[in-house]
Amino acid sequence: MNYTNYILAFQLCVIFCSSGYYGQAMFFKEIEDLKEYFNASNPDVADGGPLFLDILKNWREESDKTIIQSQIVSFYLKLFENFKDNQIIQRS
After folding, report:
1. Domain chopping of the chain, boundaries
2. How far apart are CA 33 and CA 26, in angstroms?
3. What's phi and psi for 40, nearest 5 deg?
4. For position 77, what pLDDT does the model report?
5. Which ranges does the record mark as transmembrane (predicted)?
6. Tens of pLDDT, residues 29-64
7. Which helix (H) or strand (E) holds 39?
8. Closest listed residue to residue 75, CA positions, set 51, 41, 39, 56
9. Dist. CA 88–CA 92, nearest whole Å
10. How far apart are CA 57 and CA 54, in angstroms?
């Protein structure tokens, strides 16, 4: 490989890494906005811990975990559907 190929490869790495970082930053900001809106970081939500993480850790059967995960996802989809006119939800 000559130096031109190295420079091109380096430029591609920089471009892809910076765009990925920007996308992650926006993703985390949207999550924080939603947590604030739904009061998810308040200590009285699941005693300050994650809502479903303890349940998932204690269940051993993979089928049980799949069922609860599908229920969690469907709950949040319904929740977002009810709040679809809210500006914070629309931006996310």
Report:
1. 1-37, 44-92
2. 10
3. -80, -15
4. 82
5. 6-28
6. 777 777 676 665 555 555 556 665 666 677 677 776
7. none
8. 51
9. 7
10. 5
SS3 44: coil
Contact 58, 64 (CB under 8 A): no
Q: How far apart are CA 34 and CA 40, in angstroms?
A: 8
- pLDDT band per the 50, 70, 90 thresholds, residue 68: confident
48 torsion bin: left (phi>0), alpha (psi -120 to 50), beta (else)? left
In this structure, what token pair is assigned to residue 48? 């300050």
Distance (Å, whole) CA 69 – CA 66: 5
The CATH number assigned to the domain with range 44-92 reads 1.20.1250.10
Q: How long a stretch of residues is the chain?
A: 92
Copy the structure tokens of residue 74.
Answer: 């469907």
Residue 92 has a pLDDT of: 63
The two structure tokens encoding residue 36: 């604030």
